[in-house]
Amino acid sequence: MKSLEELKQIRERMKDKVALREGANDTRIVVGMATCGIAAGARPVLNAFVEQVNSQGLAESVTVTQTGCIGMCRYEPIVEVFQSDKERVTYIKVTPEMAERIVREHIKGGRPIVEYTIGAAEK
Fold first, then answer.
1. What is the spatial distance between Cα 94 and Cα 41, in angstroms, rounded to a whole number?
2. What residues are paired with 63 via a beta bridge?
3. What ranges make up the beta strands (E) of the chain?
4. What is the mean pLDDT of the chain?
5. How far is CA 102 from CA 9, 10, 117, in A?
6. Cβ atoms of residues 56 and 108 within 8 Å
């Protein structure tokens, strides 16, 4: 068992990551975390988005959260980006490696990555 002091230190280290998963910012990154998403690798994807939002200095303006089933299991892991003044963008078959580019180009740069989206898969 951890001592009370060790538990407090763990809590402080994890505070930033937990805070990113809550909130009402203008930009939300939502990762599908139902059983199908988790089985397809959504947990490391969620963690990668939290890390990228932190490392790219967006913690104050971007919320990373999770949801249940999005309804398109064959495309998991699915990540949806909601921005208050734009249409929702749905990314499919997302890997942790894709998170850095999505945050850099879409969230920071304002340019969705079309080849990662559900629209590209339907063509």
1. 9
2. 28
3. 27-32, 62-67, 79-83, 89-91
4. 87
5. 31, 29, 11
6. yes
